[in-house]
Amino acid sequence: MNEVQTVRLILICLLVMSLAYPVGCASKGSLSRQLDMEEQRLKEQAQKEQEVKAKPSREVISAILEKERASQQQAQKEQAERDKALAEELASERVLRKQAERDKALAEELELAREREIRKQARQEKELSEKLFNEQIQRLEAEQEQARREQLERENALKSLIERERLLTEQVVRDLKEKEEIHRERIEKEKERLEQALAAQKEEQKALTARMEQDRINWEQALLKQAEKEKASRDQEIKHLKEKIKPARDAAEFASILFDYDKASIRADARDILKRHAERLQKQKNYRLTIEGHCDERGTNEYNLALGERRAREVQRYLVSLGLDQSRIMTISYGEEMPVDPRSNEEAWARNRRVSFVVSLE
Q1: 129: buried, middle or exposed (CB in 10 Å: 19+, 13-18, 0-12)?
Q2: Cβ contacts of residue 237 below 8 Å, gap of 6+?
Q3: pLDDT tens sequence across 328-341
Q4: Could you give the CA distance from residue 56 to residue 60 in angstroms, rounded to a whole number?
């Protein structure tokens, strides 16, 4: 009984020693499997002890020790193999972890590069949109300034015509007044001369007094009639001058209309202008209208002459559709020969693509 207890104690010590070595390097799964194997081995060992109870104790101990040594060696080999496999798994895991970290870093770099590219593209698009917006604003301001200058020029021209008409009228009135004053002075002088002659010859020509008085009256009436005729003639001249000046003043109010590049169709903004022109021509029955077609400098002379003619005829058809008599409207094309702006840029070309109007009396 003591020998059996000694063998059990030795087995327990060997088991503890064998378990103490792989605890630091094996995983929980390996330790559990090792404990199961040791438990199975102890059961087998207990069965063998019961079988060899009849044999001498020293031989039993020797056999047990021999088997324990062989078992321990086998366990150590298995543990070494397990440690090697575990080390290979850990190495493979570390490689995979490093590969995953590299992939993650690469993905982060790609994401950062993509974000930087997106931000750069967005910044460029924003700068481009701001540039286009500023150019549009500048172009609109330039067009407004040009329209304001043209309106100011038309107003100045109209004022100049009105002032010229006023000065001409004042000059005519002054001339009439001067001539009337001259005629009056002449009449007064003639009257005085006749009175003096009558006074000198009063005693000698008493018989002729009545006739001379009648002659004087007739003379005065003739002079007055002559003065009235001259005044009527001056009034007629003033009226004729006003009639000549009026079409010129009205022509300044017939604004030109603009066309799109290489187009002969009338734009929407030009239709309102043409309606106002038609209303004015319907009121002034004695006016004749000449429509002049113009183009910018791009294209051949022949093509621009044909394009200007198409534009003029398109305007003529539109005015006729508004109720004007076609016989009062003439068309002519100057092509690119009469630009209002001699520069070679988009602004000048837009001003030169036009139809202008010339008003005259029938």
Answers
A1: exposed
A2: 172
A3: 999 999 999 999 99
A4: 6
Give pLDDT, residue 199.
81
Phi, psi values for residue 330, rounded to 5°:
-115, 155
- Which residues does 238 contact at the CB level (< 8 Å), separation at least 6? 169, 172
**In whole angstroms, how far apart are CA 360 and each of 73, 116, 239, 287, 330?**
132, 70, 16, 6, 11
Going by C-beta distance under 8 Å and a sequence separation of 6 or more, which residues neighbour residue 183?
Answer: 223, 226, 227, 230
Q: Is 320 helix (H, G, I), strand (E, B) or coil?
A: helix
Full-model pTM: 0.35
Contact status, residue 353 vs residue 261, Cβ threshold 8 Å: yes
Angstrom distance (rounded) from CA 79 to CA 83: 6
CA distance 130 to 140: 15
Give the closest residue to 193 by CA, choosing from 205, 182, 185.
Answer: 185
Nearest CA-CA partner of 71 in 47, 51, 42: 42
What is the DSSP pairing of strand 329-335 with strand 287-294? parallel
| DSSP string across 41-81 | HHHHHHHHHHHTTTS-HHHHHHHHHHHHHHHHHHHHHHHHH
The token duo for 2 is 């003591």
Asked if 278 and 288 count as a contact pair (C-beta separation under 8 A), the reply is no
Helix (H) or strand (E) holding 283: helix 268-283
- Tens digits of residue pLDDT in 275-291: 999 999 998 888 899 99
